[in-house]
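Help needed: design a sequence for this.
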């Protein structure tokens, strides 16, 4: 029965024995595809997601148009991510601590669980290349900045801008360690366009980002300003200037709650800043006066019987409304001439 349902769903002709030149791959490999679907579903329902992915991958090799196989691979990878959440965290925590070789070793467990996972394959390549340059980061401010930046390179969802900024910041702090240049080349090899983000000569990268952000505020480009201040805060969370200016950008966008939050972070760092106190008071006042967002009612799915009952009620209300309207006598119009309206 199960095999029959699979064949029906896939529209696989049972009589196809000798493939013709014009036959679709589905017909040519009908029996193999059906068997692989059955095996994949068995693996999936029993939590063997990697084996299921291998079966669905083989199906796609035979017939790339198999949308069901593509969807099930995505679902399987979602399950793998849920299952491997703690082990993924261990890999990323080790990398964030600058222990790149240990991160690479920890990642092998993930790769064994799903050898074809595209993100795992990318991570293996990236961690391996980093660990070839630096096995374990030494202490110091420069390598802390570099490790922070590399959390954008070694991640489930990468942030190569963070990686590029962090490594440039590390290179500014320690100009003698050539390993920062080698790591920067890794990032640019994957996204050459980052090289266009040049720092003005004579400026430090964080000063440059603050400067660009401030000019975006002057130009009314508040979202771009927020992006630049965010990049600074990724590397220096205690940068009071960026918190303060980010709050100003949010305020200009009338996002008063976010402005208040940004200035709150700033005032924790600089509690004696009187200007910040006045900013926060203004943001709080605006937030109180903003109209509350109206939450739309949840959609309710009605049964056929309920819909029919509503139709009857609607008709009754319409008939009742018509009966209460004074009907004109035959031949008499309810419209008056234009002149009588003027």
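Sure. Designed sequence:
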């Amino acid at each position: 029965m199960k095999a029959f349902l699979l064949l029906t769903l896939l529209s696989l002709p049972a009589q196809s024995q000798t493939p013709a030149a014009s036959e679709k791959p589905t017909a040519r490999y009908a029996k193999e595809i059906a068997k692989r679907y059955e095996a994949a579903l068995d693996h999936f329902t029993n939590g063997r997601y990697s084996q299921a992915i291998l079966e669905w991958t083989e199906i796609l090799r035979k017939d790339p148009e198999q949308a069901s196989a593509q969807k099930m691979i995505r679902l399987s990878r979602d399950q793998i991510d849920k299952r491997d959440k703690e082990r993924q965290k261990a890999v990323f925590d080790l990398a964030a601590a600058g222990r790149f070789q240990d991160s690479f070793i920890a990642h092998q467990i993930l790769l064994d669980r799903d050898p074809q996972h595209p993100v795992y394959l990318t991570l293996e390549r990236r961690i391996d290349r980093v660990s070839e340059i630096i096995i374990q980061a030494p202490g110091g401010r420069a390598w802390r900045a570099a490790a922070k930046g590399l959390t954008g390179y070694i991640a489930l969802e990468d942030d190569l801008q963070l990686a590029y900024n962090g490594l440039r910041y590390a290179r500014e702090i320690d100009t003698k360690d050539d390993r920062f240049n080698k790591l920067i080349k890794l990032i640019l090899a994957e996204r050459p366009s980052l090289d266009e983000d040049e720092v003005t000569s004579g400026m430090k990268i964080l000063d440059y980002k603050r400067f660009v952000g401030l000019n975006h505020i002057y130009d009314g480009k508040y979202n771009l300003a927020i992006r630049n201040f965010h990049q600074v805060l990724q590397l220096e969370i205690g940068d009071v200037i960026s918190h303060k200016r980010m709050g100003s950008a949010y305020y200009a966008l009338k996002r008063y709650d976010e402005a208040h939050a940004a200035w709150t972070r700033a005032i924790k760092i600089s509690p004696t800043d009187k200007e910040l106190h006045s900013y926060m008071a203004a943001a709080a006042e605006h937030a109180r006066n903003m109209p509350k967002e109206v939450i739309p009612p949840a959609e309710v799915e009605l049964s056929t019987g309920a819909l029919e009952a509503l139709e009857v009620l609607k008709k009754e209300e319409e008939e009742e409304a018509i009966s209460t309207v004074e009907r004109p006598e035959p031949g008499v119009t309810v419209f008056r001439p234009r002149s009588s309206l003027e």
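The mean pLDDT is 81.
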